[in-house]
Amino acid sequence: MSFKKILVPVDGSKSSLQSLDMAAALAKKMGSETTIIHVIPEFVGVPAEGEPKAIGNEVVSHFDQKAESIMADARSLLAEEGIDVKADVLRYRDPADAILEFAKDGEYDLIIMGNGEDDRWELDTVGGVAERAAKRWSGPVLIVKKTCGFARISVVVGSGREEALFGTAANLAKDFGSQFKVISAPGDGKASGDALLDTYLQKAKGLGLVPQGAAMPKRNLKQLNSMLTTDLTQLLLVERPASGMFSRIFGGGDWAYRIVASCPCSVMVCP
């Protein structure tokens, strides 16, 4: 998969600035059009009951100035990487709704967001909406954590419908010359993790990669996180769970979102 249009919501936190680094790396590799946005939460523009209008205006002015500063820093960081960007400030909106509507209208291929580990917004943060975006957006969402980059990429397979996910992970590994690892974790607990792993290792070799591999007898977050930490994995790709009956039959559940919440590295949730 080639990411032709990348959307990067920023809030000034360290993790959102790291998301700009990831976006710049992808944009340079793929020639992607990159857009940065900042959302001022909807309740900033709504005066509290009995609040003098002048105070309300001061609050609005404060957040406008903060938005300008955040966007200036983001533009500067990307300019240093030679990336031309489009930029927009969305005012007085629910952040998740605003980001997803903007992404849909602009037909973006990828959303890259910080997970907000060091949030310093007074009212709302990118980290507070990243999970909602990952759950609701139909395309890939890359959630950037403190450990990030493309040098060491891993992918979790096991749903029985992860061909596109594997293809995205393998293509990223080829583009960046990454160390590549396949982790098999069958969702139903019945399929052979070893057989599944061998299938995808052969696919990776056929693409010219030199993959590593590990088979998990069942899905276990503690084991997975330990593996990712030991391997110094920077980016993990996981499949967005199927919905409804398909999810219950094939073991989708909330596995991907529990990984996002707990794993030590950045995570790309893919359709």
Tertiary shape: globular
- Under the CATH scheme, which class of the largest domain? Alpha Beta
Helix content: 40-55%
How many domains? The number is 2
Measure the end-to-end span. 12 Å
SSE order in H/E notation? EHEHEHEHEEHEHEHEHHE
CATH superfamily of the largest domain, please? HUPs
How big a fraction of the residues is strand?
A: 15-25%
Tally of contiguous helical segments = 9
From the alpha carbons, calculate the radius of gyration and give it in angstroms: 20 Å
* Average pLDDT over all residues: 86
CATH architecture of the largest domain: 3-Layer(aba) Sandwich
Main beta sheet: 10 strands, mixed
Total strands: the figure is 10
List the defining traits of the structure above.
271 residues; 2 domains; Rossmann fold; ten-stranded mixed β-sheet; 9 helices
Folded structure, characterized:
This protein has nine helices and ten strands. It has 271 residues and is of the alpha/beta class. It folds into two domains: 140 residues, HUPs (Rossmann fold), CATH 3.40.50; 119 residues, HUPs (Rossmann fold, 3-Layer(aba) Sandwich), CATH 3.40.50.620. It has a ten-stranded mixed beta sheet with strand order 3-2-1-4-5-10-9-6-7-8, sandwiched between helices. About 6% of the residues have low confidence.
